[in-house]
Amino acid sequence: MSGTIPDPLLHLTPKRFDIIGDVAVISIPPELDDFKDEIAKTIVSRLGYSR
Prior knowledge:
Elements: E1 18-20, E2 23-25, H1 36-47
């Protein structure tokens, strides 16, 4: 997430999430609301899913 999320907020990025079928369940703090799409894209790319 470095380079996408400002360094002062990196400590807030989720460290874990659950996968249920094709759904990732993740808790994103309000401070990262502006970065939700990028966090989701990163998870999807790292898991090897594509649309």
